[in-house]
């Protein structure tokens, strides 16, 4: 039996009117039962007040734990980073749309079948969105023919994906759209080692992408026993590009392989981010020089520019 009621310390940060949560005190922890987030324990942390992004991600992590029948999460200063990583908030409008479609697809399971009736705020939590914004997005997706809505109000939601919606979900599962991989095309030249080791690779890791990024990285050999492992390096190049979300193409030294790999990626519809060392930018052919390159002088210049470019394009995952 809950002893008291009040605003949830998570969703009260972003979701007016504030959700009414029941709570009990258990020593150093307060146990909350929130209609949106689900149950969680919160350790007293004087001065802690989550901002909107932190609250959305913690709300999502708690909701996922409830839906997946996992242990009730304990929110402490030590557990907050791990919980937020479980429900990382999308970084762009398109990524929010994709997240909502994927959440709905998990419930619909089959084309032509509507999802079971549920509370819209539960799915909003899984999508890391405020509930009012989530409901508006559902209406927009209905107008764009991605889904049909059989029932929708403040406490009831039943919807189904259309053929257009399922096609988008299939594309997300099949391609590099949601991939955490990135491919780097650059000259195999001793002068470029520092640019990669201290510029490109740290930038990609900082943005949440998973190595290996270079086709000759020794990590590839650790995957030699996997069924899809490509032993020929040319085959591996094209396989790795297909798995990737985008390509970093550094045109320094004007190597033919860089232009081939970048062209292949563009043919697949992937983003290509062109880079060139400042002392060589004028040596590029006009056809490629007119593309907006990241022009760098030091490896630190390169790292900062890549992080900034990925952030502005909504491709930063962490």
Describe this structure in words.
There is one protein chain. The chain is an alpha/beta fold and 318 residues long. 40% of the residues lie in helices and 17% in strands. It has helices spanning 52-67, 80-86, 93-108, 120-126, 131-143, 163-174, 193-206, 233-243, 256-267, 286-289, 299-312; strands at 4-7, 20-26, 29-34, 38-43, 74-75, 147-152, 157-161, 183-185, 246-250, 271-277, 294-296. A 5-stranded mixed β-sheet has the order 1-2-3-4-5. Strands 8-9-10-11 form a 4-stranded parallel β-sheet, with helices on both faces. α1 (52-67) links the parallel β4 and β5. α3 (93-108) crosses α6 and α7 runs parallel beside α11. Residues 220-231 have low confidence and may be disordered.
Give a summary of the structure in a few sentences:
The chain contains 11 helices and 11 strands.
Given helix and strand content, the structural type is alpha/beta
The description of the largest β-sheet is: 5 strands, mixed
Note the run of SSEs as H and E: EEEEHEHHHHEEHEHHEHEHEH
Overall strand count: 11
Helix content: 25-40%
Determine the N-to-C terminus distance: 39 Å
What layout of secondary structure does this protein have?
Layout (H helix, E strand, L loop, with lengths): L3 E4 L12 E7 L2 E6 L3 E6 L8 H16 L6 E2 L4 H7 L6 H16 L11 H7 L4 H13 L3 E6 L4 E5 L1 H12 L8 E3 L7 H14 L26 H11 L2 E5 L5 H12 L3 E7 L8 H4 L4 E3 L2 H14 L6
Features:
318 residues, alpha/beta, 5-stranded mixed β-sheet, 4-stranded parallel β-sheet, globular
């Amino acid at each position: 039996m809950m002893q008291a009621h009040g605003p949830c310390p998570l969703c009260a940060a972003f979701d007016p009117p504030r959700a009414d949560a029941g709570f009990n005190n258990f020593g150093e922890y307060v146990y909350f039962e929130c209609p949106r987030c689900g149950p969680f324990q919160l350790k007293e942390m004087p001065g802690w007040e989550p901002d909107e992004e932190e609250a959305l991600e913690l709300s999502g992590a708690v909701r996922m734990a409830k839906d997946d029948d996992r242990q009730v999460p304990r929110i402490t200063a030590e557990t907050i980073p791990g919980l937020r990583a479980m429900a990382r908030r999308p970084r762009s409008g398109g990524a929010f749309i994709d997240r909502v479609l994927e959440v709905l697809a998990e419930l619909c399971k089959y084309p032509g079948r509507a999802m079971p009736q549920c509370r819209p705020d539960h799915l909003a939590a899984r999508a890391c969105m405020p509930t009012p914004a989530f409901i508006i997005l559902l209406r927009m997706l209905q107008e764009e023919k991605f889904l049909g809505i059989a029932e929708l109000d403040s406490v009831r939601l039943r919807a189904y994906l259309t053929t257009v919606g399922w096609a988008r979900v299939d594309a997300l599962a099949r391609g590099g759209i949601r991939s955490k991989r990135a491919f780097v095309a650059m000259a195999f030249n001793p002068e470029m080692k520092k640019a990669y080791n201290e510029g490109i690779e740290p930038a990609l890791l900082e943005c949440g992408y998973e190595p290996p990024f270079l086709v000759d990285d020794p990590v590839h050999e650790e995957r030699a026993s996997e069924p899809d492992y490509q032993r020929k390096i040319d085959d591996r190049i094209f396989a790795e590009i297909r798995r990737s979300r985008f390509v970093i193409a550094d045109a320094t030294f004007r190597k033919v392989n860089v232009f081939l790999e970048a062209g292949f990626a563009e043919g697949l519809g992937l983003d290509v981010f062109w880079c060139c060392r400042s002392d060589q930018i004028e040596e590029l052919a006009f056809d490629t020089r007119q593309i907006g390159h990241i022009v760098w002088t030091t490896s630190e210049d390169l790292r900062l520019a890549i992080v900034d470019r990925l952030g502005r394009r909504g491709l930063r995952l962490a």
